[in-house]
Design brief:
zinc, alpha+beta, flat, ZFTRAF1, zinc-finger, CYHR1 protein, 13% strand, 3 domains, two-stranded antiparallel ribbon, Znf_RING/FYVE/PHD
Length: 152
């Protein structure tokens, strides 16, 4: 089992307040009980995997680098995103877009309006994030009659 799947199993079991078990043999697993099998890891890293952008096959060990740095079809953003350009598209179209992008030619007032909108959006997102985080910070929430109260 790869490290990502292992961590996912442990996290899922913790959320369900259960003991994590192997999906294959159902024996208990934990960080302290597991050991790495380097031969299996090496074999798995050589298995072919498909790039989600260009659909080409690569060894699993090379896929992440290809998707982040090399794939011409990976989704990328305009370098003027920080001043409000919303463009997203395949990497191979980036140079054409940036040559035609209107954001670098905007006036200071236009840019200030865009930045103010971006600040307002960020403020709303942070308020939402803080609300969700405060709700998730309760360890357990139970329903007792008319009131919601932390379970003890």
């Amino acid at each position: 089992m790869c490290a990502g799947c292992f961590i996912h199993l442990l996290a899922d079991a913790r959320l369900k307040e259960e003991q994590a078990t192997c999906p294959n043999c159902r024996c208990e697993i934990s960080k302290s009980l597991c050991c790495r099998n380097l031969a299996v890891e090496k074999a798995v890293s050589e298995l072919p995997s498909e790039c989600g952008f260009c659909m080409q096959q690569f060894p699993r060990s090379l896929l992440e680098r290809h998707q982040k740095e090399e794939c011409q079809d990976r989704v990328t953003q305009c370098k003027y995103k920080r001043i409000g350009c919303p463009w997203q598209g395949p990497y191979h179209e980036l140079t054409v877009h940036e040559a035609e992008c209107t954001h670098p030619t905007k006036t200071g007032n236009e840019l200030m309006e865009i930045l103010d909108e971006m600040d307002q959006t960020r403020k709303k997102e942070m308020q939402l994030y803080n609300s969700i985080f405060s709700l998730l910070s309760f360890e357990k929430i139970g329903y007792t009659g008319k009131w919601l109260a932390p379970r003890r």
